[in-house]
Amino acid sequence: MTFRTFIFGAFASILAVSAASAADLPSYKAPPPPPLPPPFSWEGFHIGVSGSYAGGVSSQYSNLYALQPGLLVFPTSNSIGTSGYMVGYQNGYNWVFANRIVVGYESEYNYANVRATNTNGYFTGVGASSRLQWFGAERLRFGYAFGRILPYITGGLAYGKVSPYGQQWANGSVFPSSRAVWQAGFTVGAGVEYAVLDNWTVKAEYLFTRMKGASGASIGFPFAYRVTTGNNLDTHIARIGVNYQVKSFGALIGMPELGL
């Protein structure tokens, strides 16, 4: 064996031993990155609360039949501004389509205190107006999702409890208020909703609502009779709200997913 052969064999043995030892050492390869969270989706149930400022116009027609000094008929009309507030809750469901169009249904119910801002008499002194005591709506929403921002338009059925409000007197006669009634009408509007967290959103919304307003007949003391017909009770509603998004029906009722 030559010296060169001996050196070459020793070097090869050292390399083999080093490779075997390296194979037994623990690996220091970096772990794979965690999976990305799923993108935010507007699909699912939501429930929340809201507060609103509301104001508009209450318009009415009246025919006053006075017996002093003879039988006199006073046809009158008035239009009185209204303002007040609403507090309530809403719930609904959103469906998301592949082109990011969001279609939703929302139901709401509110306590309302929207009444006349001016009850001065008009013409013969009839200053009656309509007060909105409760307000609800069943609406469709159509929006386009920009990630966590959802602008939308909305419209549907509106209903509420309406009662007469204001001074009701004419020609020296005082008229009692008629009873409150439930009425239906329509509402249209627009808004924008923003997801601050995966399950919490905030929204700002505007609605225009039209109902008929209070109508009725009453006997005035001492000698008069009045018939009132509601023309329009128009209300502009500006509101802010908070919703909790529930991504599944099982989560809504506190049960695990059933895989349906």
UniProtKB/TrEMBL annotation:
UniProt key word Transmembrane: no
Key words, A-Z: Cell outer membrane, Membrane, Signal
UniProt subcellular location: Cell outer membrane
Pfam family, one: OMP_b-brl
Signal peptide residue numbers: 1-22
Database matches in InterPro entries: Beta-barrel_OMP (IPR027385), OMP-like (IPR051692), OMP/PagP_B-barrel (IPR011250)
Domain Outer membrane protein beta-barrel intervals: 14-245
Keyword Membrane: yes
Protein family according to the UniProt entry: Belongs to the Omp25/RopB family.
Name used for this protein in its record: Porin family protein
